Amino acid sequence: MFTLEAFLAHQKTLQGALEIFPAATLIELPQGIGMIPVDGFFLRDLELYYQGGTKVTHPEFQKFSPSVHPDFERLILGVEKLAQHLSQVGIVAYIEATFTGGYGGHVTMIWRMGNESAKLEMILMKCCDV
Fold first, then answer.
1. Exposed/middle/buried for residue 60 (C-beta within 10 Å: 0-12, 13-18, 19+)
2. Threshold 0.90, pTM exceeds
């Protein structure tokens, strides 16, 4: 099983997240792009910061508040608020992808200037059919 939840943007755009959230980790990609994986402790920090509390009982198992968008698993309020904040600097994408046994899907939300600007979705696609 492969699962990925992450922010993607120019590294400069993602700097704000690194300054606020110590659990955020920037992975440098080519051409100045960066990725911040959204994992258990980072999600916990997002809920604490943006909701004034948390429903997280075991961040290592990633049990969190419900998603604010029906097509996403972990687009919780804190993820949405951080994307809105970061998108004041540049375009921000939040991606979720899950594949099991060659099947799966991904969905992406893009923010620009604090607003959702697009949702891209591919569900139940066959990967790597060789």
1. exposed
2. no
- Domains of the chain by residue range: 2-126
Q: Give the residue among 83, 74, 121 at the shortest CA–CA distance from 7.
A: 83
Count, residues in the chain: 130
Strand order in the sheet with 27-28: 27-28, 33-37, 2-10, 92-100, 103-112, 115-126
Number of H helices, E strands in the chain: 3, 6
pLDDT tens profile 13-34: 999 999 999 999 999 999 999 9
The amino acid at 5: E
